[in-house]
Structure formats: structure tokens, C-alpha cells
From TrEMBL:
Recorded family membership: Belongs to the NAD(P)-dependent epimerase/dehydratase family.
Name by which UniProt lists this protein: UDP-glucose 4-epimerase
Enzyme Commission no: 5.1.3.2
Domain NAD-dependent epimerase/dehydratase: 2-260
SUPFAM superfamilies: NAD(P)-binding Rossmann-fold domains
Top-level EC class: isomerase
BP-aspect Gene Ontology terms: galactose metabolic process
UniProt subunit comment: Homodimer.
One GO MF term attached to the UniProt entry: UDP-glucose 4-epimerase activity
Pathway stated in the Swiss-Prot or TrEMBL entry: Carbohydrate metabolism; galactose metabolism
Organism annotation: Polynucleobacter victoriensis
CDD domains listed in its UniProt record: UDP_G4E_1_SDR_e
Amino acid sequence: MILLTGATGYIGSHTWVEMLNAGYDVVGLDNLCNSSDLVLDRIRSITKIPPIFVKSDVCDEQSLRRVFQQYPIDSVVHFAALKAVGESVQKPMKYYKNNVGGIINLLNICSEFSCKNFVFSSSATVYHPENPTPYLEDMPLGPANPYGWTKMMCEQVLRDYELLDSKFKVAYLRYFNPVGAHQSGLIGENPMGVPNNLMPFIAQVAVGRRDYLSIYGGDWLTIDGTGVRDYIHVSDLAKGHVAAINYLLRDKKSLTVNLGTGQGTSVLELLKAFEIATGQVIPYRIIDRRPGDIATSYANVDAAKKMLNWYARLTIQDMCEDVWRWQKNNPNGY
Ligand SMILES: NC(=O)c1ccc[n+]([C@@H]2O[C@H](COP(=O)([O-])OP(=O)(O)OC[C@H]3O[C@@H](n4cnc5c(N)ncnc54)[C@H](O)[C@@H]3O)[C@@H](O)[C@H]2O)c1
């Protein structure tokens, strides 16, 4: 059985659907600090399988122990983390405590219950910003903010733990920019407060919740002066986790791979695609660059293709259409 932590969150909920569709038994766990348990009904509607859910905190070792006592968990997919880069600069201790403290607890419990397979949600933010693009897995690391450091530290904690137990295997998955929503329009990204990410911001402008999109910088050395990122459909990303679990169970080896499309898209290109998907003009203003931002980030995805036999299939237009379906059907989220 697979334990998904952070299961009701954005990527967790889409992965839960894909894991159930692939026939895996799953128990989802979340403390609901950044998600809603209304997701559970939606997962049941999509998969026709009642999801098994435990409200719990990965920082609470005793409660994790009870979950492992109750269910025969042999694999963990660990999404639970705080992820707002800006907040991590304001409150770094909160981020280290939750993200690094959480994984240490989880590994202590994995050790107690001989759980040997672990999939970790890492991020493109672990790469040093001065690396040339596309990013390759063996390029130098050097996060630019506390959130990124928590991801890099978690990777290090896992690598040290691997040395203790030769049967313990980890898939280090470095995500690029997940966007989109499930094709059903039933689950999607539901940020609390002002969105930190571009796509939910655009979608909230389109639905009338915000007046215009602010674009941070129009003078980057890119195709049109706006920042370029590697946007990946969340359902493709979710399937990458199924491929990673299959790999760990079959090959019994650890791996580190980028999960992206390998293509860069600028803010203005994404905006245009969203306008096509919605048939609306989205007002925007170009404002100052954000400190710490970079011009371009996209992945080399050869390793994921080769080792996981996985690649992203959905296009930027699919991502925009699916976000719009989700946003239109759920203008205020869940
Ligand atoms: N969304 C992105 O752009 C992105 C990019 C790279 C990596 N990641 C990583 O992917 C993972 C999932 O991200 P997401 O976008 O789905 O975020 P999310 O906030 O939607 O999901 C994370 C979930 O974890 C839960 N959570 C947080 N701390 C917890 C704790 N201590 N105990 C139990 N539950 C807890 C939250 O309630 C939330 O439901 C995170 O680890 C994030 O760092 C996300």
C-alpha cells in the first residue's frame, strides 16, 4: 500500500487519482493546512473508488506511527510541505521545521515499519541559478531561498538515510512548473489568498476575481522580455509518480530525474494560449522584476524518458483549457 502525504493538495490530489487508476492501494494523509477535504468527494467522483484518508501531520510522529500500524504501507510518496517562496524568506524556521522536520519523522517511522520505497517531491529550485539551461540532474545545486534549501536539505537527509539501509530506495523527482487541472474540471489548483504562481493568477483575472495580471519584468534576455519557464501539466506530472513507483518496485534502484517538458514558454506566450482557450482578453501590466528571479528555467528530460519510460504528453493549450474548465466550474475553489 502507498502512503501519499500532502494528498489533498494540488499535485497530491492529481497523483492520488492516477495511482488509483493504475490499480494501487493508497492511503492519503494531510493536515489540511493548505487544502480542503472536499477534494475527497471529487476523487471519488473521478475514480469511482472511495479514497482512504487520514487527517494527520507529518510532524506528529505518534500519529504517523498509528497510520503505519493501521495500514500495510510499503511505499511513501511525500508531497507534504510548505511551498510559498516569499513566505519562506519571511518565516524560514517555519519552513525548516515543517519540511525538514517532517521528512525526518517520516523516515524514523519508515525505519520502524521497514518501508523501503520513497518518492520525494523535489523542485527545479534546487539548481544553482547560474547553471545554463536546460538543467541536467548532475548540475551544481544552490537554492536561492529557504524554501529551495528545505528541498535540497530533504534530498541530503534522504541520501544519508539511504546509506544506512541498502534496501531503501528513493526517487528524487525535481518538478519544473506544474500547471493545469484534471480534465474533468473537478480538481485543480486552489491557492489560498493571493496566488504565488502565474497560472492561477491568470485564471483568477479571467474569472473576474482580480483586475489584471502583474508580470514581473519585461526586460529579461528572452524571446519577448518576459520570464521563460517549463510548464508541465499536473496530470502528466502525476503519471510521472506512477512511473517512479513502478520503477522503484521493479528495478529496486534509486534515481534522480527532472520532471518537465523540456520546453520553455514565456509569460506572454502562456497568456496568449490562455486567451485562446478562454476567448477573452486578459489585461496585464509589466512591473519591476522580483528579487531572486531568473530569466529562463527549463529541464533536460532525457533521464526521465530513459529510466522511467515517461514523458509529458499534454501541450500548453491543453494546460490552459483544463485550468479554464476547472476555474469556470469552481470560481471560488472548492
Ligand atoms: N506546485 C509547484 O509549483 C511545485 C514545484 C516543485 C515542487 N513542489 C512540491 O510538490 C509538493 C506538493 O506541492 P503542491 O503544489 O501540491 O502544494 P500544496 O500546498 O497544494 O500541497 C501540499 C499539501 O501538503 C499539506 N501539508 C503541508 N504541511 C503538512 C504537514 N506538516 N503534515 C501534513 N500535511 C501537510 C498541505 O495541507 C497541502 O495539502 C510540495 O512538496 C512542493 O514543495 C511543488
